[in-house]
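Changelog note: in this version the structure field was regenerated for every chain. One regenerated record is shown below for reference.
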Amino acid sequence: MTPASRLVLARVLNEEPGHPAAQYYLGLAYEQMGQPDKARATWTALADRSAPDAPWMGPLREKLAGLGVNPPKLSADEMAAVNSMSVEDREASSPA
């Protein structure tokens, strides 16, 4: 990732911190900078709040698998329950 692309990424994250593409590329930047723990944390958080059939989940699963993480697959009912939670409820129920 070039310095210019990191600058654009920082702007997107500043304006929309939870943007899925920005989160994916933030993890990629961490991975490229030799910070796999930060990449893993970023991508795991993205996987945790994404629908299993979200378009970015395939590449995200591959990246996580490369770091030794396999995100759990949730049923449609479980995803509906997660999606109906408020942000506060999600954060309260997320592992630290």
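Spot check on this record: Residues 30 and 38 are 6 Å apart (CA to CA). The mean pLDDT is 86.
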